[in-house]
Amino acid sequence: MNRAYPEGTAASQGLIACHVCANLNSNGVSHCELCGRRVFGRKPQSIQRTLALLITACVLYIPANVLPIMETIQLGRQTSSTIVGGAITLWEHGSYPIAIIILIASVVVPVLKISAVFTLCWMVANKRQYPLPQLHKVYGYAELIGKWSMVDIFVVALLVALVQLGNLMSIRPGPGALAFSGVVMFTMLAARAFDPRLIWDKEAFEQQPLAVAAHIENELEVESEVESEVEPEVEDKFKP
Amino acid sequence: MQTHNHSHQLLTLGGQGRRLACPECDVLLTLPPLQKREKAMCPRCGHTLLRHRANGLLDSMAYSLAALVLLSWSLYYPFLGFSTQGQVKTMSLLEAGSSLVSSHEYILGAMVIFFIIVAPALLLITVLVLGLSVQRGRPSKFAPVLGHTFYEISHWNMVEVFVVGVLVSLSKIATMATVEIGTGFWSFVGFSLCMLLAVNSLDRHELWHHVRLMKPLSPAELLAARALSADEGQLDIEESGIEETDIQENNHNKPDRTAAETS
Questions:
Q1: Confidence grade of residue B115 (pLDDT, cut at 50, 70, 90)
Q2: For residue A216, how many other CB atoms are within 10 A of its CB?
Q3: Quick one: pLDDT at residue B231?
Q4: Which residue in A139, A159, A238 is closest to B224 by CB distance?
Q5: Residue A150 to chain B, least CA–CA distance (Å)
Q6: Is A161 in contact with B244 (Cβ distance < 8 A)?
Q7: d(Cα B64, Cα B121) in Å, to the nearest integer?
């Protein structure tokens, strides 16, 4: 598993990379030297915060599915539909692709995302051996798919704006919509609160002595070049 | 430590290589300059660190401007029209949020407007303001704040999700009524494309590299710059920073400028 990374990790070299501007700060600074942002080696209390946000999302997931997401009034009759109910209706009407899109975006994606981030937290918190690249891929997908669950909320927003013909036909948002958008927001926040570098911190770091030596030589060369070129000028600047 | 820092900065500035830590696995890497169509991926976790961009910031500014114009069009022109049994209703883009507010779903309405209008517009304006200050070579007090705004908001831009939402709702109501697609919708599609290009052609590192050049100088640096400018008769150095490359560029530019002034 151990491949050679001649320069090590930022943490092993006593450097802290700013997560906003990628500037490498020396260890011990509290704020980034370039952009002034607070820096930290790893996000503080990453696992706890991720879990807290995830649990919030799980709690909200219940009303999101039980309460109606929108109410349709057609010729004075009011029918309300939940997320899954709406998808089933679409399926019965024969619009299979739309039903599948709704099902994937509103049911599969949130469930997958919540369980994926839970798995990540569990794996990192319990000192277990796991395949690192695969786990990292899980994180990547969880970050990527998060916002696509908002499709259903946008559909409701558009239908509510568009279908406003009084008693003939109109659509109103249901209380489930707010709960569902909460699920999406909190899962996105949870994925962001998770620090992927925690996954990799488990890897025992073995440096290849040869590669390191070559690297140091390289750096020395560069440094001596820089000194010979720049130092005289700098000295001149300070001379009266 | 000082000299080491200095050499490291020159290294990154000279384009010989960029030293950075992978944001997703913390491994330290020095990237060689990239050729066309190349991208740098982390050998450890596979995260894409950098793509080759010839004129990243300029491209991004151009796309941002186009996207802002298209966004204002899609706000102004009718977005979608809906007619059944002789009754017609058209909606604007803003109504996607405001009609939720008028149905007493205030939070939901605010969220929708933020995700599809406010966040993308703020993102584009940030790119334009930062890009302009970089182009003028003027240090901007707000550069770090703008950079942070960009970073925070970029996660909440859901323009492309909204486009899919429009397509889904179109096919949902196409069975019940006649739906007309307005100019606003086509502008919005163009806007989402430009938005995508603007965000993708922007290089976070390049942006911050410019911010680093524009950073206000410390007193010692200012003194050094003054001494140097007194030596060479340059007065505009105080504003443009004292990086070696800048000074050299100024030296190169100088004859041209005087020639232009005399002619």
A1: very high
A2: 11
A3: 53
A4: A238
A5: 7
A6: no
A7: 9
- Residues whose CB falls within 8 Å of the CB of residue A58, separated by 6 or more in sequence, listed in order: A114
Rounded Cα distance, A151 and A87, in Å: 13
Helix (H) or strand (E) run with residue A227 in it: helix A209-238
> pTM for this one?
0.76
Predicted confidence band at A230 (pLDDT cuts at 50, 70, 90)?
Answer: very low
Within 13 Å of residue B76, how many CA atoms lie on the same side as its CB? 7
- Residues of chain B found within 8 Å of residue A24, distances taken between Cβ atoms: 8, 19-21
Q: Could you read off the pLDDT of B164-200 as tens digits, one per residue?
A: 999 988 888 887 788 888 899 999 999 999 999 998 8
Given a contact cutoff of 8 angstroms between Cβ atoms, the answer to whether A97 and A90 are in contact is no
CB contact under 8 A, A158 and B80: yes
CA–CA separation, B160 and A181 (whole Å): 17
CB contacts, 8 Å: B147 with chain A: 20-21, 35
Dmax (CA) of chain A: 90
Q: Please, how many CA atoms are within 13 Å of residue B203, restricted to the half-sphere of its CB?
A: 20
Q: Residue A121: which residues within 8 A CB-CB, separation 6 or more?
A: A47, A50, A51, A54, A194
Query: Tokens 């440094």 correspond to what residue?
Result: A223
Give A1's DSSP letter. Answer: -
Distance CA A186, CA B152 (A): 15
* Residue B141 in this model has a pLDDT that exceeds 60: yes
Please tell me the distance from the alpha carbon of residue B188 to that of residue A111, in angstroms, as a whole number: 30
Decide if B56 contacts B206 (C-beta within 8 A): yes
Burial B42-76 (b: 16+ CB within 10 A, else e): bebbebebbeebeebbebbbbbbbbbbebbebbbe
Q: Where are the beta strands (DSSP E) in chain B?
A: 18-21, 28-31, 39-41, 48-51, 80-84, 87-91, 178-181
Distance separating alpha carbons of residues B158 and B165, to the nearest angstrom: 10
Nearest alpha-carbon partner for A101 in A159, A149, A163, A156: A149
Partner A contacted by B29 (CB < 8 A):
yes
Residue type, B7: S
Under 8 Å between Cβ of B70 and B187: yes
Sign of the alpha-carbon torsion through B130, B135, B140, B144:
positive
Q: Which of A109, A85, A94 is nearest to A188 (CA)?
A: A109
